[in-house]
């Protein structure tokens, strides 16, 4: 393992015994302490499990994390007063740590953890997804799986206690979120021929641990069934009639959390519309090449669903996506990026049943023993059109999420583990991934109208996200230049209709997307706003260097910065 991937917090940042640490040491100590409270995080980072196999999702467990955050902010203030605490590396880490902890504490203190129901991002989803990231090569790995499955009942009981406290305190989750999650939990319980997802997963373990694995799987499935029944019979009736949208105050708080900046929401909403009109005009041009005379670009996309190039078969599609990412690495490495050996490895996977409809990526462990992975939710389909696969895998895999997050992992020792993992700002990462799609278009990889129309459809989706996410949560007026219900105010119903009119996605995927936006307010806007930040930073760096601008060097320096909020991203990228 090279020095670049050394993740020890030891004395790497120059702290002498008996002295206060510098900010990067404070940040990495926070990671260590947080992993002790959240063993799921430890698994994502590839660290050994702690005394508890799953986090405490109860109100008391949530407060323990908040206490750690407050204490860390106090330690950070002391560290910044030390000589050397104001160097560029220390300053950048300190600014990120303060911004992230302040945003997280604002969310906690508003009681958001007591109403955390989402079809994608919630405690119950992390409880299941962590098993897909656990090593399973040896018997001791499977013994850890059995122990963690046996811990699921206590974890979900703590989660239920938090939701019950939220109800008692007048903090309901959105009814649409609740109904969707109830359905997801039902899928988990009957994932394969009536066998629960946990039982199916445990079936891959060794016979020598069959008793422990079956017992753990039964306990986990029983806990999921109990939570589903409580949500259906008690929680759902109690939140009936509550709003699915969050309003301006909650939205601002969440937008800060996901984007690392206090956004001008009116400006962002207007930008979403500007991009909508720009992308729509470009889509019409490409659609004419795909299906001359098509009434709309989405008529051309529907034509491609049945007459365009496609991959048949789920496993065949997984293999094809692996080959697509491998090919991208071979063509980009040495020309537009300089990739270290561990970063060149990425795996294509099929998402487990009951996942949300959107593909996703999981980053490698800190030691790269678990590679970065892309995940395709099959959603019952066996045919996958190329127009939607190619640009999506440039986003999720290479050069998108994988190159950024694997590079962060590679340089974690030079920065801090916090900057390259726990401190990730969603809009930074999603903005890079959308920039990566655009880069592949700029480099000519989307070489025909079919693939370009798919890319533009993805760009349109991200533009529409800005419009409907801000619009429906704030109840904004639809402008007069809109081709859709001008002068009316956004509602979730109108948002879903508008999204469906401007997307090549199937109806069930559109609905899943809208439920996601309702349950994760402010997150979906970070794709377009983050991409804009990356493009501004590149344009400024190119203007500063002129003909000497080296895109390959800029890309690698940019990917080695670690996490930054949108407050800082443009400035740091511009200075490279």
Automatic annotation (TrEMBL):
Region (Disordered) location: 1-22
Gene source species: Streptomyces radiopugnans
Name under which the protein is recorded: Uncharacterized conserved protein, DUF885 familyt
Bias kind Polar residues: ranges: 1-12
InterPro entries linked to this entry: DUF885
Domain of life of the source: Bacteria
Pfam families: DUF885
């Amino acid at each position: 393992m090279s020095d670049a991937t050394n993740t020890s917090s030891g004395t790497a940042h120059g702290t002498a015994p008996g002295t206060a640490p510098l900010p990067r040491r404070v940040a990495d100590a926070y990671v260590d302490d947080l992993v002790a409270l959240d063993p799921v995080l430890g698994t994502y980072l590839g660290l050994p499990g702690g005394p508890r196999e799953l986090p405490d999702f109860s109100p008391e467990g949530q407060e323990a994390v908040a206490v750690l955050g407050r204490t860390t902010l106090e330690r950070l203030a002391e560290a910044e007063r030390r000589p050397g605490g104001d160097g560029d590396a220390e300053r950048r880490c300190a600014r990120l740590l303060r911004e992230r902890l302040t945003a997280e504490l604002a969310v906690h203190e508003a009681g958001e953890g007591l109403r955390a129901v989402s079809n994608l991002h919630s405690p119950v989803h992390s409880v299941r997804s962590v098993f897909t990231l656990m090593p399973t090569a040896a018997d001791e790995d499977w013994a850890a799986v059995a122990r963690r499955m046996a811990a699921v009942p206590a974890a979900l009981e703590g989660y239920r206690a938090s939701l019950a406290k939220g109800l008692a305190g007048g903090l309901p989750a959105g009814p649409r979120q609740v109904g969707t999650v109830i359905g997801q939990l039902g899928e988990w319980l009957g994932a394969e021929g009536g066998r629960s997802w946990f039982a199916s997963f445990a079936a891959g373990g060794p016979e020598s641990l069959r008793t422990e694995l079956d017992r753990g799987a039964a306990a986990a499935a029983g806990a999921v069934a109990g939570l589903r029944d409580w949500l259906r019979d008690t929680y759902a009736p109690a939140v009936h009639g509550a709003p699915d949208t969050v309003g301006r105050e909650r939205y601002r708080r969440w937008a800060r959390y996901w984007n690392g900046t206090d956004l001008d929401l009116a400006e962002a909403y207007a930008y979403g519309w500007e991009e909508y009109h720009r992308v729509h005009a470009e889509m019409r041009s490409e659609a004419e090449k795909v299906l001359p005379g098509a009434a709309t670009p989405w008529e051309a996309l529907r034509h491609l669903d049945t007459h365009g190039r496609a991959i048949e078969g789920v496993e065949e599609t997984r293999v094809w996506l692996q080959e697509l990412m491998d090919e991208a690495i071979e063509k980009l490495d040495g020309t537009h990026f300089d990739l270290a050996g561990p970063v060149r490895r990425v795996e294509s996977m099929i998402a487990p049943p009951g996942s949300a409809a959107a593909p996703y990526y999981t980053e490698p462990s800190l030691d790269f023993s678990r590679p970065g992975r892309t995940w395709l939710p099959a959603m019952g389909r066996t045919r996958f059109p190329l127009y939607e696969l190619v640009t999506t895998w440039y986003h999720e895999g290479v050069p998108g999420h994988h190159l950024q997050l694997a590079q962060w992992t590679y340089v974690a020792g030079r920065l801090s583990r916090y900057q390259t993992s726990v401190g990730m700002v969603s809009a930074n990462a999603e903005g890079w991934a959308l920039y990566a799609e655009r880069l592949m278009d700029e480099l000519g990889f989307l070489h025909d109208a079919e693939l370009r129309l798919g890319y533009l459809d993805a760009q349109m989706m991200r533009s529409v996200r800005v419009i409907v996410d801000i619009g429906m949560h704030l109840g904004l007026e639809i402008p007069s230049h809109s081709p859709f219900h001008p002068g009316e105010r956004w509602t979730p119903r109108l948002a879903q209709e508008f999204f469906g009119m401007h997307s090549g996605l199937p109806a069930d995927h559109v609905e899943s997307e809208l439920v996601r936006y309702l349950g994760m307010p402010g997150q979906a806007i970070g794709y377009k706003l983050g991409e804009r930040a990356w493009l501004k930073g590149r344009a400024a760096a190119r203007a500063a260097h002129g003909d000497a601008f080296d895109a390959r060097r800029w890309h690698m320096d940019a990917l080695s910065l670690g996490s930054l909020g949108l407050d800082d991203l443009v400035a740091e990228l511009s200075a490279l």
